[in-house]
Amino acid sequence: MSALKRFGVSIDSDLQKKFDRLIKKKGYGNRSEAIRDLIREALVSEEWETGDRDTVGVFSLVYDHHKSDLSMVINTIQHHNLDIIRSSTHVHIDHNNCLEVIILKGKSREIKKLTDQLASTKGIKHGKLIMTSTGTEIT
Amino acid sequence: MSALKRFGVSIDSDLQKKFDRLIKKKGYGNRSEAIRDLIREALVSEEWETGDRDTVGVFSLVYDHHKSDLSMVINTIQHHNLDIIRSSTHVHIDHNNCLEVIILKGKSREIKKLTDQLASTKGIKHGKLIMTSTGTEIT
Amino acid sequence: MSALKRFGVSIDSDLQKKFDRLIKKKGYGNRSEAIRDLIREALVSEEWETGDRDTVGVFSLVYDHHKSDLSMVINTIQHHNLDIIRSSTHVHIDHNNCLEVIILKGKSREIKKLTDQLASTKGIKHGKLIMTSTGTEIT
Amino acid sequence: MSALKRFGVSIDSDLQKKFDRLIKKKGYGNRSEAIRDLIREALVSEEWETGDRDTVGVFSLVYDHHKSDLSMVINTIQHHNLDIIRSSTHVHIDHNNCLEVIILKGKSREIKKLTDQLASTKGIKHGKLIMTSTGTEIT
């Protein structure tokens, strides 16, 4: 198990004041928490660039469920990729529009490939991917 | 109800070839579908810039559920914002790490404020927002 | 004049190790410098969101100088916006292609408006804006 | 030399109206021009992802020229990378702050490596890269 450490950051007092203002606005309780989040975001960005590390993605799809057999197509694509799909949540936005949110775990390269395929399916209005993390690399 | 239209795009043959290659790689069946997606993405970006339109967000949180009372804190924040939260999905990534995915519908300004608050909560490793759409503006 | 301060960041030893690896790869000499850059980037992003603060933008345009009177059109647009344009640099990329880089200082809203106008000019192949800073807000 | 082609895009009339509104706001004269720009932007993004194609970058640096020997350090780094640097422009923003804009041509991987090195140099307040194009791939 890993221990808690502490390191010092030297900073101009003006820059510190502006940073304090920003993190207060965002809701942070203290500087350490905000700094750790900046560090984690930098690490997650790098994790996705390499392509071959195990990571987690969240993919959202907006579509009109009246359109042909779209629900079935999306369902079928997912069934062919069970190994990297962990869950799907469906929300009825209004009379016509659906949102489906798919949680994926796998190599970033594989996640991108599958979500490109889903986004390009005819009838999908908007497909977008959150590149997040398994959490193990950003303790 | 709105009708289907058709418009022409004049384009250099080289540029068209390169575009065809790209959309094939991404999985599109034809140019119209790919063009409509580019148009929708441009419209969704603009929708989020204005701040006061009804839209849909998908927010992912990664955290260690062993950390203090984090699950309860996240739960409480959500209960104070029931009006814009549509659903929450929880995935157990490994022994320590959880992923919670929250689907939100409301003004983009309000969605950003709440998700900033969640992301800045002590113990949250990674919080990230997909800015998507209700679908009504991108038929 | 503002003084140098120092604050402590508590961090898990694993996260610190991964951060050290990342910043070494990027070329940073020490953690303070890397942390200050993360802080400045967060402040610059926020500066551009508000729209009405004085800031600095760098805009790049790629175009084919053989195309009609494009050089003249770009030149004319710039002359109508002298108050926010500080300089223009022209590079001949190859026989056909030119790069023009325009440095702008003004409200972020005005910079975006002018660079949208330039990017949408017929014949411009690629227009892109760096949102940077006057430096005064990120000492 | 490549010829001008024309292809049709089928689109819902509502979506077309919204797109027309957006491109008018951005300053486009017609849909073809706007569509070609969306296509080119998609191609440029992909060009930078591969890492090994010849491309063009524009890098901006903001710094305080009073700080030690920063101007000299930046100058030296540039002299060690003459093969990918095409030009440098310097703007005096105010009494303290300078902006230096460097135009680079080379493999995207090499451009990123050098600009990471410049951005991480002690005393640089803000470094940011525009990933643009030689123009030859986006006729």
Q: What is this entry, summarized?
A:
Four copies of one chain form a homotetramer. Chain A has 139 residues and is an alpha+beta fold. In chain A, strands 3-4-2-5 form a four-stranded antiparallel sheet.
Q: Tell me the quaternary state.
A: homotetramer
The largest chain-to-chain contact, stated as pair and per-chain residue counts, equals: A-B, 51 and 51 residues
Rg from Cα of chain A: 20 Å
| Helix-strand pattern of chain A | EHHEHEEHE
Mean pLDDT of chain A: 91
Spatial strand order of the main sheet of chain A: 3-4-2-5
> What is the global morphology of chain A?
elongated
Total strand count of chain A, please?
5
The amount of helix of chain A comes to 40-55%
Q: Structural class of the helix and strand makeup of chain A? A: alpha+beta
The N- and C-terminal alpha carbons of chain A lie at a distance of: 11 Å
- Please mark out the parts of chain A with pLDDT under 50 across 5 or more consecutive residues, or reply none: none
How many helices of chain A? The count is: 4
Strand content of chain A: 25-35%
Largest sheet of chain A: 4 strands, antiparallel
Helices and strands in order:
4 copies of one chain form a homotetramer.
Chain A: E1 4-12, H1 13-26, H2 31-50, E2 54-64, H3 70-79, E3 85-92, E4 97-107, H4 108-119, E5 124-131
Antiparallel strand pairs in A: 2-4, 2-5, 3-4
What does this structure look like?
4 copies of one chain form a homotetramer. Chain A has 139 residues and is α+β, with helices and mostly antiparallel strands. Chain A is 40% helix and 34% strand. Chain A contains 4 helices and 5 strands. In chain A, strands 3-4-2-5 form a 4-stranded antiparallel beta sheet. In chain A, a hairpin with a 4-residue loop joins strand 3 (85-92) and strand 4. The longest helix of chain A is centred in the N-terminal third of the chain and has 20 residues, at 31-50. Chain A is elongated. Chain A starts with a strand and ends in an 8-residue tail after the last strand. The mean pLDDT of chain A is 91. Chains in contact: A-B, A-C, B-D, C-D.
